[in-house]
Amino acid sequence: MDHALRLGRRNLGRVAPNPSVGCVLVKDGVIVGRGVTQPGGRPHGETTALAHAGEAARGATAYVTLEPCSHFGRTGPCSDALARAGVTRVVCAIGDPDPRVRGRGFTMLRAYGITVDTGLFEAESGLDHRGHFNRVRLGRPFVQMKMALSEDGFVAGEGGRRVQISGPHAQAQVHMMRAMADAIMIGAGTALADDPELTCRLPGMADRSPVRIVIDSQLRLPLTSKLVQTAADVPTWVLSTVGAPPEAERALRAAGCQVMLVRRHADGRLDLGEAMRLIAVRGITRVLAETGPALAAGLMDADLADEVVLVRSPNTLGHGLAGLPTPLSPRFQLAETRPAGADMFETYRR
């Protein structure tokens, strides 16, 4: 099951709106088939593993990270495929809350006479499938909020001036986080101050760059920015508010950006909850929010952050733009710390 989970993690960020499911087929103590949900969401992990195993699947045990589907879509149910291939036992980490499945996959397997065991590595699988679970249960994506902080708590220089805070090892880790997200999100302030590309720049992984989302209530994103200039190559979505300047909206659309309008609060801020529901409808399940203080405060105030990753540098700035506007809510507990060169990653989860 640990191997199946590792397989599933390989395609996180590539299979939306589907979950990335890993499957390992074992017969007589030997792995005879392995699979993971393929880019675009199909074929599913079980189908891929069965194709790898061929006739060797007959009599095998399948280790699957999520309940096999039981409904007909573009393809038949994976539960049916496992039975037809002659699999005699299925060990599954966790059930699928999707109302089209929700226990029916297990029921179908047992109806075929297949032994079903559940709950192995359930907690680990629950973490891996958070995007799928959030979209099904809450109607919004899993939101992972990341912020790099100097030792004295700053995220940028004076006036928001861009300063390289974390080192190369930490930056590589962040690019891997980008590769495992369906979308990367920043606020307009970060877009204006940093003019970022928001792509995955790990060697050989350029195609893993996620959808880029800018929260920009006034449509201030310049047409000369790197995000707009490369919108034809990497999907770029600008989320703004009803009432934003129409000429700016037309210009961004003409440049290749997708502009989506949501309601705004009385203080003029964009309704982040509605924005998250909108992008979930468009298939996004996992969002990496690389936040400055304003977007971080907005996500926290709207209770939309599910995980907070603080990249702490040992370097001091002495002055500049302060990071987290308030201490983390008691809802978040420190779950993991890990070094990345001279920097330290702290992961807080609900």
From TrEMBL:
Family annotation (Gene3D superfamilies): Cytidine Deaminase, domain 2, Dihydrofolate Reductase, subunit A
Active site: E46 (proton donor)
Role noted for this protein: Converts 2,5-diamino-6-(ribosylamino)-4(3h)-pyrimidinone 5'-phosphate into 5-amino-6-(ribosylamino)-2,4(1h,3h)-pyrimidinedione 5'-phosphate.
Biological processes annotated in GO: riboflavin biosynthetic process
One Pfam family, short name: dCMP_cyt_deam_1
Binding site for NADP(+): A148, T190, D194, S217, G292, P293, A294, L295, A296, A297, G298
GO molecular function: 5-amino-6-(5-phosphoribosylamino)uracil reductase activity; diaminohydroxyphosphoribosylaminopyrimidine deaminase activity; zinc ion binding
Positions with a binding annotation for substrate: R178, L198, R201, E290
Residues that coordinate or bind Zn(2+): H44, C69, C78
CDD domains, per database record: Riboflavin_deaminase-reductase (cd01284)
E.C. designation(s): 3.5.4.26, 1.1.1.193
CMP/dCMP-type deaminase domain location: 1-109
InterPro entries listed in its UniProt record: APOBEC/CMP_deaminase_Zn-bd (IPR016192), CMP_dCMP_dom (IPR002125), Cytidine_deaminase-like (IPR016193), DHFR-like_dom_sf (IPR024072), Eubact_RibD (IPR004794), RibDG_C (IPR002734), Riboflavin_Biosynth_HTPR (IPR050765)
Cofactor(s) essential for the protein: Zn(2+)
Catalytic activity: 2,5-diamino-6-hydroxy-4-(5-phosphoribosylamino)-pyrimidine + H2O + H(+) = 5-amino-6-(5-phospho-D-ribosylamino)uracil + NH4(+); 5-amino-6-(5-phospho-D-ribitylamino)uracil + NADP(+) = 5-amino-6-(5-phospho-D-ribosylamino)uracil + NADPH + H(+)
Superkingdom of this protein's organism: Bacteria
Cofactor, free-text remark: Binds 1 zinc ion.
Pathway membership: Cofactor biosynthesis; riboflavin biosynthesis; 5-amino-6-(D-ribitylamino)uracil from GTP: step 2/4; Cofactor biosynthesis; riboflavin biosynthesis; 5-amino-6-(D-ribitylamino)uracil from GTP: step 3/4
Listed name of the protein: Riboflavin biosynthesis protein RibD
Top-level taxonomy: Bacteria, Pseudomonadati, Pseudomonadota, Alphaproteobacteria, Hyphomicrobiales
Keywords, ordered alphabetically: Hydrolase, Metal-binding, Multifunctional enzyme, NADP, Oxidoreductase, Riboflavin biosynthesis, Zinc
Entry-linked PROSITE patterns: CYT_DCMP_DEAMINASES_1, CYT_DCMP_DEAMINASES_2
Family statement: In the C-terminal section; belongs to the HTP reductase family. In the N-terminal section; belongs to the cytidine and deoxycytidylate deaminase family.
